């Protein structure tokens, strides 16, 4: 599996309360210069530990 970033926040659906997206943090050093991208929850897997990994298409 490929490590793509750390999950920083979770975005919930307003009506259902299910997780809709995970906001991943990429790059940066000591908390500076990090970029954040929302990724659809269904596209991630936690099979490689506590980090988010993309699932095959």
Note the beta-strand portion. Answer: 35-45%
Order of helices and strands: EEEEE
Q: Helix tally?
A: 0
Averaged pLDDT:
76
Bulk shape? elongated
How would you write the strand order of the largest sheet?
1-2-3
Main β-sheet, in a few words?
Answer: 3 strands, antiparallel
Structural class: mainly beta
Question: Termini distance?
Answer: 13 Å
Number of strands: 5
What radius of gyration results from the CA coordinates? Answer: 12 Å
Residue runs with pLDDT of under 50 for 5 or more positions:
none
Approximate helicity band? under 10%
List the helices and strands and how they pair.
Layout: E1 6-12, E2 19-26, E3 35-40, E4 44-45, E5 53-54
Antiparallel strand pairs: 1-2, 2-3, 4-5
Please give a structural write-up.
- By secondary structure, this protein is mainly beta.
- The protein is 0% helix and 44% strand.
- The protein has a three-stranded antiparallel β-sheet with strand order 1-2-3, with no helix packed on it. Strands 4-5 form a two-stranded antiparallel sheet.
- The model has no long low-confidence stretch (mean pLDDT 76).
Short key terms for the protein model shown above:
three-stranded antiparallel β-sheet; two-stranded antiparallel ribbon; 5 strands; single chain; 57 residues; mainly beta; 44% strand
Short description:
With 57 residues, the protein is mainly β. The chain contains no helices and five strands.
């Amino acid at each position: 599996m490929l490590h793509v970033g750390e999950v920083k926040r979770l975005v919930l659906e307003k009506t259902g309360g299910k997780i809709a997206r995970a906001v991943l943090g990429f790059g940066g050093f000591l908390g500076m210069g990090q970029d954040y991208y929302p990724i659809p929850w269904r596209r991630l897997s936690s099979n490689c530990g506590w980090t988010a990994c993309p699932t095959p298409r």
